[in-house]
Design a protein that fits this description.
The protein has 395 residues and is α+β, with helices and mostly antiparallel strands. The chain folds into 2 domains: 37-157 and 250-393, Porin; 159-244. The chain has 6 helices and 14 strands. It has helices at 2-22, 159-173, 183-194, 196-203, 208-222, 232-244, and strands at 34-49, 57-72, 76-90, 99-113, 120-132, 143-157, 251-265, 273-285, 290-301, 307-321, 324-337, 345-357, 362-374, 381-393. Strands 1-2-3-4-5-6-7-8-9-10-11-12-13-14 form a 14-stranded antiparallel β-barrel. Strand 4 and strand 5 form a beta hairpin. Helix 2 packs antiparallel against helix 6, helix 3 runs antiparallel to helix 5 (208-222) and helix 4 crosses helix 5 (208-222). The protein is globular and about 75 Å long. 17% of the residues are buried. The model is unreliable at 1-22 (pLDDT under 50).
Amino acid sequence: MRTASVVLVAISLLGLHVAVATAISLTDYTFPKSTSQQAYLNGIFNTAGNSADSTEVGYNFAGSASYLLDYRSLPFSYNLDVLGNFSVAKSTIEDSESEEAYFLRMTTVADKYLRDDSNLFGFGGGRLEYRKLASQEDADDPRIDLEVGVGYGRTINATVLKQAIRINEDFLKYQVISGDIPDNALLELAQVIEKEGEYRSRHGNVEYRKYWFEDMEQIVRDAGVLTGQNLGAIGILRIQEVLAEPTAQRWHGWVARAGVGVQVSDFDGESGDPTLSARFDWTRPVDIKLQLSNRASFFTVLEDDPVYQIADEFRVDYEVSNRIDWYNSATLNYDIPTMDGLENILRLNLKSTYIFYIENQLSLNPEFQYQFIDDGLGDSEWNWAILGSVTYRLK
């Protein structure tokens, strides 16, 4: 009996291993042509008083906007990242005045691959920053960097396969299909979802959904798992709702790059200094709920007494439910100055943010932050904060 039990357990474990091994993974999606856009508005406000020292009421209002465009194809990829923020703050100190600050950053990188089936590419990029610190009367001069270089690797957006898997789960739940859609059919379904823009441009903003859904239905029918003659109203409704749900991006792959450039202008109006940089991006979805990513970078301006800037950001994004995401990040910045008398500076920033989707475009975001700074001059500085903000997604 004991031997039989051991055999049964072994068979069960083997079956589990086979089931896990044959289950589709987001890394199976290698169709590299994709376009994704994300645009957000974010706002935060708080106020405070200190009746023990003064009757002044302090406040802080901050807002930000961001836009991210990612395009991927076999011969070419392109990225545009825009971030702007603005704040007005006033302390509780007697007779204090409000102070304004703002910041704008725009970066763009274009990669051209040597061949469609190659991972080797050349790239060109630029960076623009414009800022006014709260302690300043006027804004700094704009900072402009240009860069060219070479790289190796690819990153692929597999979010559409995540959506296809969600559709499969809902089809099973509502008995639209009799069994799981086969892996090869799920990959086909993901590719059709990816081509929404093509359907829209070919058939118009209204009519395209008819042809788009028909092609999805044909894939399910050809897979032999459709319970009826067609998807029916419930099947179409589930596709619409899954594709409309707020969903975190899922990427896989890695890219290494190194470049040289020139600083056209810095915040002090100086120009002409060459730059040197290197970066390694790695990203991998563990499953449809969990995403890991890491970005390590090196940057320096080749001037007298340069400062070497080393940074690393590690992120863990987890989907708690269809309406709740949990983002965690650890960012390390290490500045190494070469001028005599200056110490290395270490900055550590930890963030943990919950994203509660009130509706598909609107979310409430409580966040915990921890910051640690060691400038080598004395006692290290650390602080923590609990923040709350409201975000509206435009795209």
